[in-house]
Amino acid sequence: MTPEYRSGESSRRNERGRERNRSGERKFSATAPGERTRRADPARLVAFEVLRAVAADDAYANLVLPTSIRKHRLGRQDAGFATELAYGALRGQGTYDAILSLCVDRPLAQLDPAVLDALRLGVHQLMAMRVPPHAALDQTVGLARAVIGAGPSSLINAVLRKVSRKSFAEWLDMLTEGVEDPVRVSSLRHSHPEWIVRTMRQSLVNHGRSVVEIDDLLAADNAAPVVNLVALPGIGELDEALEAGARAGELVADSALFAAGDVGRLESVRSGRIRVQDAGSQLVARALAAVEVDHPPEDGEEWLDLCAGPGGKSALLAAIAAQRGYRLVANEPAEHRAALVRQALAAVDPAVWSVRVGDGRSIGESYPGGFDRILVDAPCTGLGALRRRPEARWRRQPSDLAELGPLQRALLAEALETVRPGGVVAYVTCSPHPAETTAVVQDSLRGRDGYVLLDAGQVLDGVSKSGSLHAGHESTAQLWPHVHGTDAMFLALIRRAT
Question: Which residues does the record give as S-adenosyl-L-methionine binding sites (predicted)?
Answer without folding.
Answer: 307-313, 332, 359, 377
